[in-house]
Amino acid sequence: MSRRLKIDLVAPPFEGHLHPILGLARILREYADIRIFSTPDAATRVADAGFQLHPILAAHARAVWSIPNTTRPVRGRPWMLLQQFRQNLRLLPDLRREISAAWATHPPDLAIVDFTLPSVGHWARERGIRWWTSHPSPLAIETPDGTPTYLGGWLPPATLLGKIRDASARKTIHLFKRAMFLTHARPLRAIGLDRIYRSDGSENVYSDDIILALGSAALEFPATWPRAVRFIGPSCYTPPPRDDVPLSLDPSRKNVLVTLGTHLPYTRRQLLSLLPVWAAQMPDIFFHYTTGGKQNTGHSAPTSSSASTELPSGPNWKTYRYLHYDSAVSRFDAVIHHGGAGIVYHTLNAALSAVVWPQDYDQFDFAARLAHHGLALRCSHPRQIPTALRRILTEPGSRERAAFFARDLHQIDQPALLKNLLHERGLL
What we know:
InterPro entries: Glyco_trans_28_C, Glycosyltransferase_28, UDP_glucos_trans. Keywords: Transferase. This is Glycosyl transferase. One of its GO terms (molecular function) is hexosyltransferase activity. Residues 256-396 form the Glycosyl transferase family 28 C-terminal domain. By secondary structure, the chain is of the alpha/beta class. The protein has 2 domains: 5-233 and 412-424, Rossmann fold; 254-410, Rossmann fold. Helix content is 39%, strand content 14%. The chain is built from 14 helices and 14 strands. The protein has helices spanning 15-28, 43-48, 61-66, 78-105, 118-126, 160-183, 185-190, 265-281, 325-328, 341-349, 363-372, 385-394, 396-410, 414-424, and strands at residues 5-10, 32-38, 53-55, 110-114, 130-135, 210-213, 229-231, 254-259, 285-290, 313-314, 317-320, 334-337, 354-356, 376-378. The protein has a 7-stranded parallel sheet, with helices on both faces. Strands 10-11-9-8-12-13-14 form a 7-stranded mixed sheet, sandwiched between helices. Helix 12 packs across helix 13 (396-410). The protein starts with a strand and ends with a helix.
């Protein structure tokens, strides 16, 4: 009998990164002994998924969460992006020591590493360990001819002028990334990144072996993807909650899920002031808002605030500290969300239409794709949301388009695709 594989999966503790990794791990444990690496506050979610955590950066858990949890949007503020980049760099020496110590005694056959931790992949390569990148937001991967992302949610060009716009933007992004590397070359080379682009033009921050694109190619805009990219479908997994969170739907009204994910604290506060207004404008709709945190069981950033604070509600709206997407999303009639990868694919998987109010990062690009394919209405201001919500609930085509896309998603056999990749690379 052949020896079982050893696979290590590495991700930050943020739900949009950790949960896809856990979904992959639950498939791969049929073939391999699994270790999950993340910060200690991920231990509960890792255990609930059926694994034991190998903790990293225990002394820096709060610093890790402070990187994405900004007090205002990063978009349009390159100095904030630079600050996040430098915060990351400060953590990498300790991370390297801890990862190297684990691999010195028990090296895996394969390391699957979230795309936000490219240095870990290069450290694996240095030790002769195969490295694959896990990417829940493949739209961020640069292509030689596609519409560039992180520019506010551009749509594919329809004219020659649009094609020139895209080409110019791709060149500008190249120059910006090269400048970032040159101005930080010493610390980057110290942690294993000796260049930003390979000779074939692909990005050195991703594996040149396999990039697990955790999404549907059908949602993406036309592009020539790097040869390492393999679309294997979304990883729609959330660990089961330890506390039973009752979801009480109102049978006399349309029930709408409202979520802004687990980051964006500044917008979540604003949303609590908007909910009573929307509810008053649309008394025939019941709004269910999840704040995206579960502080007492590690479902959010470390905090000193009490998890027992009473949550606000009204006649036709209610606030939840946490809703389990796997079991809850499909019970709603529609979703209002921010365009994060997780809720995008949970909504699509449930064949629901959505109103998207993007806030930061890749959310504008997800919103552009959803709107382009007729799967959601994109709003740039909250005052547009009530009208948009009414449209997706009443227009017959909205639900049909969502159902058609969901059928395609359900045909993706992610376990079979992963098994084939393991065979293809001689690991099985």
